[in-house]
Fold YqzM family protein.
Amino acid sequence: MNEFEQDVQSKTNDVVDSAAGFLVSFLFFAVMFIIATAVDIIGK
């Protein structure tokens, strides 16, 4: 067995980490879109 397989740093599920990363990036771009839309509406 590989020596790194015996001493892992994180035993959490990768699905949870990837879902959290996707959610954070999605919310960031959604907020950017909302701000840009609001600025576009206010500017008219």
About this structure: The radius of gyration is 20 Å. The first helix runs from residue 3 to 6. The mean pLDDT is 91.
